[in-house]
TrEMBL record, chains A, B:
<protein>
    <recommendedName>
        <fullName>mannose-1-phosphate guanylyltransferase</fullName>
        <ecNumber>2.7.7.13</ecNumber>
    </recommendedName>
</protein>
<dbReference type="Pfam" id="PF00483">
    <property type="entry name" value="NTP_transferase"/>
</dbReference>
<feature type="domain" description="Nucleotidyl transferase">
    <location>
        <begin position="4"/>
        <end position="285"/>
    </location>
</feature>
<dbReference type="InterPro" id="IPR051161">
    <property type="entry name" value="Mannose-6P_isomerase_type2"/>
</dbReference>
<keyword id="KW-0342">GTP-binding</keyword>
<dbReference type="GO" id="GO:0009298">
    <property type="term" value="P:GDP-mannose biosynthetic process"/>
</dbReference>
<dbReference type="InterPro" id="IPR001538">
    <property type="entry name" value="Man6P_isomerase-2_C"/>
</dbReference>
<dbReference type="Pfam" id="PF01050">
    <property type="entry name" value="MannoseP_isomer"/>
</dbReference>
<keyword id="KW-0808">Transferase</keyword>
<dbReference type="InterPro" id="IPR005835">
    <property type="entry name" value="NTP_transferase_dom"/>
</dbReference>
<dbReference type="InterPro" id="IPR049577">
    <property type="entry name" value="GMPP_N"/>
</dbReference>
<dbReference type="GO" id="GO:0004475">
    <property type="term" value="F:mannose-1-phosphate guanylyltransferase (GTP) activity"/>
</dbReference>
<keyword id="KW-0413">Isomerase</keyword>
<dbReference type="InterPro" id="IPR011051">
    <property type="entry name" value="RmlC_Cupin_sf"/>
</dbReference>
<comment type="similarity">
    <text>Belongs to the mannose-6-phosphate isomerase type 2 family.</text>
</comment>
<dbReference type="InterPro" id="IPR006375">
    <property type="entry name" value="Man1P_GuaTrfase/Man6P_Isoase"/>
</dbReference>
<dbReference type="GO" id="GO:0005525">
    <property type="term" value="F:GTP binding"/>
</dbReference>
Length: 474, 474
C-alpha cells in the first residue's frame, strides 16, 4: 500500500482572477467540473493506495473536506499547517504522522495538488517503478521529459539521456536551479535534463532518516508539532508553537540535493504546473487558429488567444485578438498579452496595495456550513445568496448594526429567532431584527438556497457575535 | 429664436456592450455623468433657443423624458416616430409640426444626439453664421474640418479651402459619398473637403418648400402623420399608417444633394460621431502611452489601449496590451483589436443569432415608473433590484406563475395587495402570493429602492396581467 500525501496549502496569484488568496488555484475549476486538487487525489486512489493524507492550511480545511466529499472520499487525513513553511516541514510532518500510525515501513507518495497530468496511465506506470526503487531504500524523484527549453523550472541532471520513460529509476547526478534561456536551450538539446516536477516517493522511515542526516534541526520541532497535534472536528492541527520553530525550506534544498540515495524515474506523462494562463491555454487544446475558449464566449478572427468566461461570468466577446489571454468573471476581468503573463502577479500585488477586495477575495465565499455570495451592495443594504447543504448549520449569532430578511427560494430551513424555532419552506420568509440572536440550519435532504437582504448602517462581515458554533468558531 | 430639433431615434451597435438596442449610445454615459443626448440638448439651450423638439422612438420615450428632466428641462416637445425611416421623414415631420405651431418663419437647427462636440464656443459661433444664412433663405449644412483622411464619413466639397472656420456660410459644390482610402487622402490633402456632420439649419418653411421641390412624395404622408398625430401622456405620436407610407430616405439624398440653395458653414469644433470605440478612446484624451481608462481599472505596461469598466462593472486589469480596446460590464465584456472595431457590429449580430440576451438587452431596464435590474437568476427564483422615483407607480397587476417578496431597502412604498393598501418603510417587507392583484407606488420625496425575490416555475417578464396603468400600457 502506498500512502499518498497531497500538498495543497499553496496560494499563488498567477492564475488571478480565477485563483485568489482565499480560493487558490488547486481548488478552482479550471478544466470542467473537477478541481486540480480533486484530480490529484483521484490519481492517487485505487487498490494500491491507502487513504490520502492532505496537508493544507486552516483557511482551506472545509474547502478541501468538501471537495473530497464531492469525490466520494469519506476517509482522509487532513493535517493543517498553522502557517506555510515550504515543502520540507510539511513532508516531514506527514512522514512523522504516518510513522506514528505504524506505517514506517510503507512507501509514501508526495504530490502537489495544483499540477495537471494528462497521461495518467504513464504516470501510474512511473509510480510503479518509483515504488520498486523506494522499497529498495531509494529517495525517488520524478523527472518529466521536457517539452521545451523552459526557464521557469528546476531540472534534474542524469548521466545519460533516458532510453525509456516510466520504466525504472536511474541515479540523479545533480539538481539544477532554474536556468537562463541559453542554458535552458543547451539542456533541452542534450536530452539529459528532466523537469523537476516536485513529485516524490520514499519509505516513511527512509525520508525521516534522510532528514536526520541532511537537516537534523528540522526533525525536533516537526516531531513536537506532530506529537502535540490536536484533533479538531476531524482535522489534525499541528502544534503552532513547534511548527513555527521549523526552518522554512524546500524538500529539494533540505534533503534531496544532499542525500546520497536519490534516484529519479524519468516520465513522459503530459505534466504541467499551470504556472500561468499560457500553460492553461496550452492544456485547453487550442483549435487550428490557436484559440482556446471556455464558458460564455463568442469570438471573431482571433489567433493564439485564450478566452474564458468563468461560471456565471459575463458574456465575453473577442474580436481580432492576437496572443491575448482574457479571463472574465462577474467581479474581475484580466486581459493580458500572452508574453506578459508573469506580470499578473505584479498586477495583483498592485490591486492589493490599492485595497481592491478582488485582489484576494473570491466572489463566492466558502464556509464550513456552505457558501454565500454578494449579489448587490448598496449604501445601506446588501443582498446575498446563501447555500447550506443538508445537515449543516450556521453559528448561533447576532448583529449589532444590521437586520436581515431571509427568503427561502429552494429547500427548507430551520430558523431560530430568539427563543422560537420555526421551519421555513420554499417561498416563505422571516425577519431577524437588529440584535436578535438567530441561527439557520438545513434539516432537509436537498440544498437550501436563500436570499438574504441586509439593511443597516454597517454591513461588514465582522459585525457578528457568535454564541455557539458546531465548527468551533465561537 | 432658433428651434433645436434633436434626432435620437437611432440604435447602433458599434459601441456594444455599453450601447444596446434597448439603451442606445445617445442615452449611455460615455463621458462622465451626462449622456450624449443630454449634452446635445444642453448645447442647444440658452437665450437664443426655443424649447427643444425631440424626435425619438416610442421605446425610448421615458428614457428621453427622464434625461431631459435630470437636465432641468421641463418643457420640451417629444415627437415619437412609429418606426425609424431615416432622417428625411423625421426632419420633415419636425418642420411640419413647427409650421403647425405658427413657427414657419423661424429657423430650426437639426442635430444628431449621439455625437460629441468638444469646442462648444466654436460650435455656437458657427451656428450664428448658419442662422444668418438660413434667414436669407439658405439650407445650411455644417462642414467639419477633417482631422484625418477618414473613409467612414461623407464629405462636402467646397470651391476653395476655407480661409476661416465658423465665420460664414459658403456655397457647396458637391456632396461626396464615403471615399476609399486613396481618395480620402487626396481629399484630406486638398483642404477643400469638409466632413458632413449631419447638422443643419434652415427656416421651417424653406425646408418644407425644398421637400416639395426635391421629394414631393414625402410631403403628403408626413403632413398626414403630423396632422393626425395624437397626444399620449405629453408625448406626440405621429400617425402610424401615414408615417409608414413615407419613403425611407436621408435628408442628404432627399433634399440637400439636389436643392440649389445649399450652403455650408465650415467649422472646427472638435466634432466626433463616436462611430466606434477607437473614437471614444481618442475623445478620452489618452495619456503619454496612449492609454485611456475609466472606471475600476488597473493597468501595467499597456500602450494605445482603451480600458473601461462601466458603472458597477467588474475590476478590469490590463497587462502588456497594445492597440486593444476593452469594455467591461457585469453581464458582458468586449475585448477587441483597435483596428478591428468595425467588426463589433458583426459580433453583436452573431450574439443575436445565438440568442444571447446581452446582444440587445441592457442589464438595467428602464420603465416609465423607474428601472429594475436582475441581480440573480436561478432555476426557480429571480432577485431584482427595483427603483421607483417619487410620485411614480407601477401598473395594477398580477402574475400567474410567480409569487413575490418585496423588501424595502431605501425610501417608502405604498403597496396595494388585493383590497388592502399599506405603507411599507425601509427595512420592512411584504409578500404577494401568486395570482394576487397588486401595485407598487412611491408616495415619498426620495427614491424608493426595493429588493424583489420572485419564486415560481416561470419567471419571464411576459407573465403579467395589467389591470390599470397610468402610462397607458394596460
Amino acid at each position: 500500500m502506498i500512502h499518498p500525501v497531497i500538498l495543497c496549502g499553496g496560494s499563488g496569484t498567477r492564475l488571478w482572477p480565477l485563483s485568489r488568496k482565499d480560493y487558490p488555484k488547486q481548488f478552482a475549476r479550471i478544466f470542467g467540473e473537477e478541481s486540480l486538487f480533486q484530480a490529484s487525489v483521484r490519481r492517487a486512489s485505487g487498490d494500491c493506495f491507502a487513504q490520502p493524507v492532505i496537508l493544507s492550511h486552516s483557511d482551506f480545511r472545509f474547502l478541501a473536506a468538501e471537495q473530497l466529499s464531492a469525490l466520494g472520499i469519506e476517509k482522509a487525513t487532513i493535517i493543517l499547517e498553522p502557517e506555510a513553511r515550504n515543502t520540507a516541514p510539511a513532508i516531514l510532518s506527514a512522514a512523522l504522522y504516518l510513522d506514528s500510525e505504524g506505517c514506517g515501513e510503507d512507501v509514501m507518495l508526495v504530490a502537489p495538488s495544483d499540477h495537471v497530468i494528462r497521461d495518467v496511465q504513464a504516470y501510474h506506470q512511473a509510480l510503479d517503478a518509483g515504488a520498486d526503487a523506494a522499497r529498495k531504500g531509494r529517495l525517488v524523484t520524478f523527472g518529466v521529459k521536457p517539452a521545451r527549453a523552459e526557464t521557469g523550472y528546476g531540472y534534474l541532471e542524469l548521466d545519460d539521456a533516458p532510453d525509456s520513460f516510466g520504466a525504472h529509476a536511474v541515479p540523479v547526478t545533480h539538481f539544477v536551479e532554474k536556468p537562463d534561456a541559453s542554458r535552458a536551450a543547451e539542456m533541452f538539446a542534450s536530452g539529459r535534463y528532466m523537469w523537476n516536477a516536485g513529485i516524490f516517493m520514499f519509505r516513511v522511515r527512509d525520508i525521516i532518516a534522510a532528514f536526520e542526516t541532511c537537516s537534523a534541526s528540522m526533525v525536533g520541532p516537526c516531531r513536537e508539532a506532530v506529537d502535540n497535534a490536536r484533533p479538531d472536528l476531524g482535522f489534525i492541527r499541528l502544534d503552532e508553537a513547534a511548527y513555527a520553530r521549523t526552518p522554512e525550506d524546500s524538500i529539494d534544498y533540505a534533503v534531496m540535493e544532499t542525500a546520497d540515495n536519490v534516484s529519479t524515474v524519468p516520465v513522459d506523462c503530459g505534466w504541467s504546473d499551470l504556472g500561468a494562463w499560457d500553460a492553461v491555454w496550452h492544456e485547453m487544446m487550442p483549435d487550428a487558429h490557436g484559440v482556446a475558449k471556455s464558458g460564455a464566449v463568442t469570438q471573431l478572427d482571433c489567433h493564439n488567444t485564450l478566452l474564458r468566461s468563468e461560471e456565471n461570468g459575463p458574456h465575453l466577446v473577442g474580436v481580432g485578438l492576437e496572443n491575448t489571454a482574457v479571463v472574465a468573471m462577474g467581479d474581475a476581468v484580466l486581459v493580458a498579452d500572452m508574453s506578459d503573463l508573469q506580470k499578473v502577479k505584479v498586477a495583483v500585488q498592485r490591486l492589493k496595495d490599492q485595497g481592491v477586495p478582488q485582489a484576494e477575495t473570491f466572489p463566492r465565499c466558502y464556509r464550513p456550513w456552505g457558501w454565500y455570495q454578494t449579489l448587490a451592495l448598496g449604501e445601506r443594504f446588501q443582498v446575498k445568496q446563501i447555500m447550506v447543504p443538508p445537515g449543516r448549520q450556521l453559528s448561533l449569532q447576532s448583529h449589532v448594526h444590521r437586520a436581515e430578511h431571509w427568503v427561502v427560494v429552494a429547500g427548507s430551513a430551520n430558523v431560530t429567532i430568539g427563543e422560537e424555532v420555526q421551519l421555513v419552506c420554499e417561498n416563505q420568509s422571516v425577519y431577524i431584527p437588529i440584535g436578535t440572536v438567530h441561527r439557520l440550519e438545513n434539516p432537509g435532504k436537498v440544498d437550501l438556497h436563500l436570499i438574504e437582504v441586509q439593511t443597516g448602517s454597517y454591513l461588514g462581515e465582522d459585525d457578528i457575535v457568535r454564541y455557539e458554533d458546531i465548527y468551533n468558531r465561537a
